[in-house]
Amino acid sequence: MPRERSLGNKSLGFVIAARHVVDDLTPARSDEFFVGSIQRFSLLLLGAWIVALPVAEASAHSIPGANTLHDLCRAADVVAVGRITLVSTPNPGSNELPPVRAEVTELLRSNGEKPGVVMFWPHRHGNDTYVVDEELLLFLDPTRTPERAKEAKYEALEAIGDRFVIPKEARDIWIDAARKYVALGKGPKSSTDPRELGRLSVAMLAGSDATLAQFALRDLTLAGTAPVLGETDVPDLLRIIEDKKRPAMLRVGLLSELERRKLTPVGSHWVSVLESTPTNERSAVISGAKSRWFVPEVNTALVAMIEHGSLDEAISAARAVGAEGNEAAVDALAAAVLRESAELRHAALGSLRRINSVDARDKLAEFAKTHPDPDTRKVALAEMALLPPNPFTAKKIVGTTAPSPLLSTSAKRIVIAVVILIVVFSAIGLVKQARRAKENR
């Protein structure tokens, strides 16, 4: 049963309103401010994905939820390869975990430590535990309190659930990667040359280990505006993006990063990534292409997926093309409203409302009156109620090199709201100042 129907007719309005919170983030134009905002938003979402792996892979080794390999290598006083040899049971009634014992086989950053047995304090956010005989990368700092230092000299930087268990099939690759990150130095600005991190990140992205590639992409994102990448890196990175054997979201994240750094035109390569992505991953790529709708080739590909893609692809594409003035998508969206899937129909109606052209408004009015499905008529009426007073005058879709047009309607509303707030607070300040002046007389 479609999700909307399972909620009952009275809940349709709530479903529509909740969906608009996300759908209305679509940029109305190619204005650089809005494109940049959507890119930053998509990078935050990608960051959440980059540190996650499928369940099958997660059973092989734990993946840090917040820190990359580079983050921990530059933060820890001691970086070592060790094997867990003792995990003690917590004392009854105590929330504190007892120290863990490990046999250190190799020190990548020693801080005066030597290979051998080491005791360290663990910490966790749930019920995770270390496993005896698992080999992992250890990131340790000296124990902060003298009392605890008597039992264990070090404490782990990362939580147990975020530990770096070394995969047996890629042991040498992981240890070599950690060694190279340690060589960049310690501290928040570990490398005096950002290009050193960039060169290492490119090497990790091009390597065979998908997890290290994900960490490297996250490092590039977290580097902000630092010049870690240059024009000479682009050909190698584009080869990764065009490699259909790579995970789709890695390709999308890397392409978004190149766009953010203005190393490739916004919207370029998206069509080839869309077309070469496996069906089970394509909806996520479509969501990334949403903020590039103003690029004609991308828009055409998205419209084609509404018409010829799988149901999930059609739904994602229908939501992606719902941008103010996107007249090229109206006919495909109207056809989608006549298809069997309620979720697809409702997604198409929402996008017709956001397009807000004369033709899109007419289509909404027609569906509100004549569509054979009662729920669809109600959704069309609800969308019509959200329309602004005047239709948007459809313009030709602009390319990435065209001059930025004026702000969209939603942007104007934000500006007006900010101005009103400034005026109100200024007036309050003037009133208070006048009262103080009167009291001081």
Describe this structure as you would to a colleague:
By secondary structure, this protein is of the alpha+beta class. It has 4 domains: 1-30 and 286-406, Leucine-rich Repeat Variant; 43-60 and 196-265; 61-190, OB fold (Dihydrolipoamide Acetyltransferase, E2P) (Beta Barrel), CATH 2.40.50.120; 411-441. It has 20 helices and 6 strands. It has helices at 3-6, 12-23, 32-50, 55-58, 69-75, 146-149, 171-183, 194-206, 210-222, 234-241, 248-260, 270-276, 279-289, 296-308, 311-320, 330-337, 342-355, 358-370, 374-385, 409-440; strands at residues 78-87, 100-109, 116-121, 135-142, 154-156, 164-165. It has a 5-stranded mixed beta barrel with strand order 1-2-3-5-4. Helix 11 packs parallel to helix 13, helix 12 runs antiparallel to helix 13 and helix 14 (296-308) runs parallel beside helix 16. The longest helix has 32 residues, at 409-440. The N and C termini lie far apart (74 Å).
Name the descriptors:
single chain; OB fold (Dihydrolipoamide Acetyltransferase, E2P); 441 residues; disordered N terminus; alpha+beta; 4 domains; 5-stranded mixed β-barrel; 6 strands; elongated; Leucine-rich Repeat Variant
Concise synopsis of the structure shown:
By secondary structure, the chain is α+β, with helices and mostly antiparallel strands. The protein contains 20 helices and six strands. The chain has a five-stranded mixed beta barrel.
